[in-house]
Each structure stands twice: as C-alpha cells, then as structure tokens.
UniProtKB/TrEMBL annotation, chain A:
The protein, known as: Bifunctional 3-phenylpropionate/cinnamic acid dioxygenase ferredoxin subunit
Gene3D superfamilies attached to this UniProt entry: Rieske [2Fe-2S] iron-sulphur domain (2.102.10.10)
MF-aspect GO terms: 2 iron, 2 sulfur cluster binding; 3-phenylpropionate dioxygenase activity; metal ion binding; monooxygenase activity
Cross-referenced InterPro entries: Rieske_2Fe-2S, Rieske_2Fe-2S_sf
Superkingdom of origin organism: Bacteria
Keyword field contains Membrane: no
PROSITE patterns xrefs: RIESKE
Pfam families per the UniProt record, alphabetical: Rieske
Record bears the keyword Metal-binding: yes
EC number annotated for this UniProt entry: 1.14.12.19
TrEMBL record, chain B:
Recorded coiled-coil stretches: none
Record flagged with keyword Iron: no
Pfam families assigned to the protein according to its UniProt record, in alphabetical order: Pyr_redox_2, Reductase_C
Gene Ontology annotations for the cellular component aspect, listed alphabetically: cytoplasm
Top-rank lineage group of the source organism: Bacteria
Lineage: Bacteria, Bacillati, Actinomycetota, Actinomycetes, Kitasatosporales
Flavoprotein found in the keyword field: yes
Cofactors demanded by this protein: FAD
Name this protein carries in UniProt: NAD(P)/FAD-dependent oxidoreductase
InterPro entries xref list: FAD-oxidoreductase/Apoptosis, FAD/NAD-bd_sf, FAD/NAD-binding_dom, FAD/NAD-linked_Rdtase_dimer_sf, Reductase_C
Domain Reductase C-terminal: 319-386
Assigned keywords, A-Z: FAD, Flavoprotein, Oxidoreductase
C-alpha cells in the first residue's frame, strides 16, 4: 500500500513526521537530507520514535536507550531486542510517499495485544 | 591482551562484553556473576514483572542467538582481586587469570538493621528479590514502603494497581528532593495522594514489630503503621568490599577517571560500583542509572584496550526514567546546584509538566512528566550545551 505522507518542504532536516495509521509509521528527514520510513513504535515499549533523538541514520527511543538504524531497522542494544520494519520512501511532485512493508510488524507486547483485539 | 575478566554479569558487565567484541577484542572473555541468572533487565522488576505482566523470559538482556564468545561463570562470587598476580579469586577457591579486568559488581540494596529474618520484609534489587515480593503482593494486604525514592514509589504504584492498601514512609520532608529538588520532588510525589496511597513524610523509622512475621512499622514519633508486607527502599551501597586490600582506590565505590580507568593498570570500572570523574562538574560522581551502565562501558573498554592512551569523550548528562501510576517520568542532568526551576509546559496540577532547572541562567537539568517529545528536545539541548 502506498500512502502520501507530507510535502517535502514541510519536513525540515532533523525532523520526523508521524503517519497516524495503525500501527503508526514515521518518516525521518536526516541532517544529511536523506529520507527514511520506519514503524513509529519502539519494539520494547509504547513510545513514538518520531519523538526520539535523531542522529545520523539512527534514532534513539525517547524513553530508554535503544537506537534503531533507519536504513535497516536494526536495533543496537537493550532494552529493545527486535528491529522495526522499514518502509520504502519516495518523493513525487514534492510530496513524500511511503510504500508500506508487507512484513509483520514487531510491536511491543501492549500494542500487539491491542491490535489483536485483546486488552490494551 | 589475551584474557579479559569482567566481574559482574548485569547490564554494565554485559555492555562491557559487547563493547569489547564491538571494539575488536577477540581474545578470551570471562564474565563472572554472583547470581545464577544470565544478564537480565532490572527496571521492569519494580513495575511490569512485579505486576505479573512481564515474564522472566522477557527480562533477558541478551538477544536471541547472540553469541559474544563469553565463558560465563555464574553463581560465582569474586572475593579478591590480586593485581600483582593478575587474578580474580572466587569464593569457591577458583582463580581466573587475566590481563585486563572490568569491575562491574554493581550495588546492593541497603537493609534495615534488625529486620533480618523477619518474614514479610523485602528489598528489591535482584530477580530473586522480585520473585519473592511478587508472590507476597499477590496475596494482598497492607503494604508499607520504607523510602519514597524511585524504587519505593514504583513499588507503591505497582502494589496500588494490584489492589493493596499502601503507605509510603519517607524520612525527609519531601520525597525525591535529592534527585529532583524540593519543588519538583513534591509535585512528583503528589502522585501517591492522587491515587489514595498514604504518604508519611518527615519522620524516621525506629524499627519493625512482629515475632516471626512483620506486623507493623514503628515510627520515631511513636506511631505504628500496621503492615502485612514491608518493602525497604532506602538506597544501595556499591559492592566493593571484595576489592579492599587490592590496592585499588576506593571512595564511595571504585574511584575512576572520566574514561573508567582506575589507579591500577589494566583495570577499569563501570556501572553502579564506579565513582566516575565528571569533567564538567570537576568532581567524582557515582550515578546509579541504567543508562550509565549501558553507555559508559564503551569508553571504559576503549581505555582498557588502548592501555589508557585514548582521550575520553564527554559523556552525555545522566538520564533516568521512572513509571508511576501510569505517568512517565524522565530526568536528565543534575538538579543539585540549580538555582531555579521553571515549569515550561503543562501544569503541575495535571501531572504533565516539562520543567527546566537552571544555574545562573544556564540549563543544568530537565524533568518531564508525560512529555516525551518536549523532554527529548530539551535533553538534546542540554547535552549540546554541556559538551
């Protein structure tokens, strides 16, 4: 599935834009001008990576200390243990689009339970 | 360097082992831990694990299939560092010879004198502590938490959610005044009263009463608080007794430089037992935070492998978090020494504040309650300003 995110001119370098889909996805514009899209929720606990500490091609979860590689989704260290999904990003007519991954997301236990229809 | 011994198998020890491999060390690596468990995560012990929503398997710090090529010596207590002989001696008489040593023995919960052997009295530091407390809380009843610091507050919050009748006793007039200052300590500890948890401040604990099992906490003003379960959360002391006589400099833990180096060649210290030099403040600090145990081993290992020939970078300001009554509390920097604290977003009454601490106009710390986005921005500014 392809989703329009926001206009490139509205997403300054060093910032992130969250798509409020379920599960949410975020587009990151790095200081070097690259664009990446990953699942927005840290795989350890319910936290928005769009609120995190963006440095180079890595974002650190705003709550704890795990960092995710925007290029691969890989996580560097605990408390998170699973990678986030990455999504394809492209710009067309000044508009950022995200092509959602078909892989199963790695969501923290509380979110996974909610999406499965169980208790939050 | 052909053998490195890491003494301590918790987050700091595991992070050191990871740093060693990441930084190219391919020699023999021995990790010595006095508990029988592989490295596990402690923050959930007072929260999700105690509440029963997170199991033991999920506490593991190692990733599935992670192989650091480590020889694990678990259930092995280090009792002596023989620097001249380049060996760590264990309680069972074994010796581990090595050329490099990482001291990561952590800290142990302080106890209440006279409470030994009384059933129903707990501290919370290890997985075994948490198992025992979890089983008791499941039976319900009246819980008295001695100490209104973060561990005490988190246990109170978890126990409240489990339906227990909870009282928190704090000797200081305001809980958390040490880490957060008076003003914000009062705001954060108001979370207890919001949820009907009694908070008794400004009075010390004289002792506990009970024959074989605790039945009350006795206060210095003569009052008695009936209790079925007591949790003692009065801080921790660095586990460094085993290093006495080794020639290593001890002062509130292992005294070490900004890069973790100790006064002994080939020995570095990390985690809760390490009293690091803080180049910004010009003094030594022992910071018992998860984040420090996770991040500082990188620098200490670089120092160990380079024989002390590297210049340490300036570490980020210390950071910690807490979760109480559904509120995410985050703090970075040092509140001590601030001459002002200003709430810059949210409202104290709503318990969702972003507060900035300043000294002579410069930010020195930031506190967030349910403000992860603003908090992270401020934390970045704090790190940039401080470096």
């Amino acid at each position: 599935m392809m989703i329009p995110a926001c206009r490139l001119e509205d997403l300054p370098r060093g910032e992130a834009h969250r798509l409020d889909i379920d599960p949410p996805v975020s587009v990151f514009h790095t200081d070097d001008g690259e664009l990446f899209a990953i699942d927005d929720t840290c795989t350890h606990q319910d936290a928005s990576l769009a609120d995190g500490w963006l440095e180079g091609c890595e974002v650190e979860c705003p709550l704890h200390a795990s960092k995710f590689d925007l290029r691969t989704g890989a996580v560097d260290a605990p408390p998170a243990k699973l990678p986030v999904r990455t999504h394809e990003v492209f710009v067309e007519d000044g508009m950022i689009h995200v092509r959602l991954s078909m892989d199963a997301p790695n969501l923290p236990p509380c979110i996974a339970a909610r999406l499965a229809g169980g208790p939050a | 360097m052909r053998t490195v011994a890491v003494v301590g198998a918790s987050l700091a020890g595991l992070s050191a082992a990871r740093s060693l491999r990441k930084q190219g060390y391919d020699g023999r690596l021995v990790v010595i831990g006095d508990e029988f468990h592989r490295p596990y995560d402690r923050p959930p012990l007072s929260k999700e694990f105690l509440a029963g929503t997170l199991g033991e398997g999920e506490l593991a710090l190692e990733a599935d299939g992670e192989d650091l090529g480590v020889e694990w010596l678990l259930g092995a207590q280090a009792v002596e560092l023989d620097h001249a002989g380049r060996a760590v001696r264990l309680a069972d008489g074994r010796e581990v010879h090595a050329d490099g040593f990482v001291i990561a023995t952590g800290a142990a919960a302080r106890t209440l004198p006279g409470s030994e052997g009384l059933a129903g009295v707990h501290t919370l530091r290890t997985l075994d502590d948490a198992r025992a407390l979890r089983d008791e809380l499941a039976r319900g009843g009246r819980l008295v938490v001695i100490g209104g610091g973060f561990i005490g507050a988190e246990v109170a919050s978890t126990a409240y959610a489990l339906g227990l009748d909870v009282t928190v006793v704090e000797a200081a007039p305001t809980p958390l005044a040490g880490p957060l200052g008076e003003t914000m300590g009062a705001i954060v500890s108001a979370l207890h009263a919001d949820h009907g948890v009694r908070l008794v401040c400004g009075v010390g604990v004289k002792g506990l009463s009970g024959e074989t099992r605790v039945d009350a906490v006795l206060l210095e003003d003569g009052r008695g608080l009936p209790a079925d379960i007591v949790v003692v959360g009065v801080g921790a002391r660095p586990c460094v007794e085993w290093l006495e006589g080794s020639g290593i400099a001890l002062d509130n833990g292992v005294k070490c430089g900004a890069d973790g180096r100790t006064n002994l060649a080939g020995v570095v210290a990390v985690g809760d037992c390490a009293n690091w030099y803080d180049p910004r403040a010009g003094l030594h600090r022992r910071v018992e935070h998860w984040t420090g145990a996770r991040e500082r081993p990188d620098a200490a290992v670089a120092t160990l492998l380079a024989g002390g020939a590297v210049q340490p970078g300036v570490p980020r300001p210390p950071y910690f978090w807490s979760d109480q009554y559904g509120v995410k509390i985050q703090f970075a920097g040092h509140a001590a020494g601030a001459d002002s604290v200003t709430i810059e977003a949210g409202a104290a009454d709503d318990r969702d504040v972003l507060a900035v601490y300043r000294r002579a106009g410069r930010p020195v710390a930031v506190l967030g309650m349910n403000q992860p986005r603003l908090f992270m921005r401020r934390r970045k500014e704090l790190a940039a300003d401080a470096s």
